[in-house]
Amino acid sequence: MLYLTQLIYIKEGKEDIFNQFEAIAIPRIPIYNGKLHFRLRPSKESYIDIAIEEPYEIHYVSFESQTDFEAYMKDEERKKFLHLKEESIKSVTLIKGEKL
After folding, report:
1. How much is the pTM?
2. Can you give the residue range of the structural domain that contains 75?
3. What is residue 98's predicted lDDT score, i.e. its pLDDT?
4. Which of 38, 63, 64, 88 could be cross-linked to 69 through a Cys-Cys bond (beta carbons 3.0 to 4.6 Å apart)?
C-alpha cells in the first residue's frame, strides 16, 4: 500500500480553476485502486505552529501499489485537463509513506 500526502499551494485568485481540475481528477482515483481519505482546507486558526508556507489544501490518498499510482498519473482523461492544474497550482509537496 502506498500512502501519499500532498501539500497544495494555489496561485492567488485561481481557486475556481483548481476546483475544476479537482472535480475531474479526484473521481478518477478509485479507478486505479486508490482512495481519497481526506481533503482538507485548513484555516489559519487550525495551525498550532507552522514554519512553512500554509498550504491551500492537504490531501491524504492511498493506492494499492506504486504501479496503480503511476497508472493514475498517466490517465488520459485526467491528462486532458492538466492545463487547469498548471494554471492554478503554484507548487505541490508530495510526501510518500507507508503504514507502520
Report:
1. 0.89
2. 2-97
3. 84
4. 63
